[in-house]
Specification:
The complex is a heterodimer of chains A (112) and B (117). By secondary structure, chain A is an all-beta fold. Chain A has strands at 4-5, 10-14, 19-25, 30-38, 45-51, 56-59, 62-67, 72-77, 86-94, 101-102, 106-111. In chain A, β6 and β7 (62-67) form a beta hairpin. The radius of gyration of chain A is 13 Å and the shape is globular. In chain B, the strands form 2 sheets. In chain B, strands 2, 4, 5, 6, 9, 10 and 11 form a 7-stranded mixed beta sheet that branches. In chain B, strands 1-3-8-7 form a 4-stranded antiparallel beta sheet, with no helix packed on it. In chain B, 0% of the residues lie in helices and 56% in strands. Chain B is built from no helices and 11 strands. Chain B has strands at 4-7, 10-13, 19-25, 32-38, 44-51, 57-58, 67-73, 76-81, 90-99, 104-108, 112-116. Classes of the chains: A mainly beta (112), B mainly beta (117). Chain A binds chain B through residues 2, 9, 32, 36, 41-46, 49, 51, 89, 98-105, and chain B through 4, 6, 9, 32, 34, 41-46, 49, 91, 93, 95, 97, 103-111, 113.
Chain lengths: 112, 117
């Protein structure tokens, strides 16, 4: 039972354009959401997070949007840079807990 | 700050042997660490929660006698894969929990690639 899903296994974007990565979840108990970036053979690196009391959080080129009614969140990267090429995982945790449930990941490729 | 290391970064072992993987929080103390495994092109799956000074909590379907976890200090947790088999070959990643004020955050180690021949 995959509680956090990233339906696009891959995404290709041109440098300078916007990258939009999507994530859907099914567990209504999730109240905190995170995005991680991961290179092969390395651990995930935290990018940005959002609490369920917000619908948007911005940090530099990264913005996360949360639509609780649709149980959907998205990560916007603008402008996209070649160094952004990596696998992006969304993750979620439930009320008061610290355990993370990860999505399946989206491979982003930013082309010159 | 919040650096987590793992050792070794990769290891090859023969079927039937045991392998120990270390996870250290270098610049902070972590009463809680987590162990994940990742198969190629798949998600990170939580295996167990490691608590300093107490027994680990394993996720459903994870054999606690096969994956021994010891969290003997506030900066070190170890995962021992006992009687390893080829199907245990995977990428193992640990994380350490730290208080970031508003919320606890997990910081991840670089991972350990285990290959069982």
């Amino acid at each position: 039972d995959q509680q956090v899903k990233q339906n696009s296994p891959s995404l290709s974007v041109q440098e300078g354009r916007i990258s939009i990565l999507n994530c859907d979840y099914t567990n209504s108990m999730f109240d905190y959401f995170l995005w991680y970036k991961k290179y092969p053979a390395e651990g995930p690196t935290f990018l940005i997070s959002i609490s369920s009391i917000k619908d948007k959080n911005e940090d530099g080129r990264f913005t996360v949007f949360l639509n609780k009614s649709a149980k959907h969140l998205s990560l916007h990267i603008v402008p996209s840079q070649p160094g952004d090429s990596a696998v992006y995982f969304c993750a979620a945790s439930a009320l008061g807990g610290n355990k993370l449930t990860f999505g399946t990941g989206t491979q982003l490729k930013v082309e010159l | 700050g919040a650096v987590v290391s793992q050792h070794p970064s990769w290891v090859i072992c023969k079927s039937g042997t045991s392998v120990k993987i270390e996870c250290r929080s270098l610049d902070f103390q972590a009463t809680t660490m987590f162990w994940y495994r990742q198969f190629p092109k798949q998600s990170l799956m939580l295996m167990a929660t490691s608590n300093e000074g107490s027994k680990a909590t394993y996720e459903q379907g994870v054999e606690k006698d096969k994956f021994l976890i010891n969290h003997a200090s506030l900066t070190l947790s170890t995962l021992t894969v006992t009687s390893a088999h080829p199907e245990d070959s995977s990428f193992y990643i640990c994380s350490a929990l730290t208080d970031r004020g508003m919320r606890y955050e997990q910081y991840f180690g670089p991972g350990t690639r285990l290959t069982v021949t």
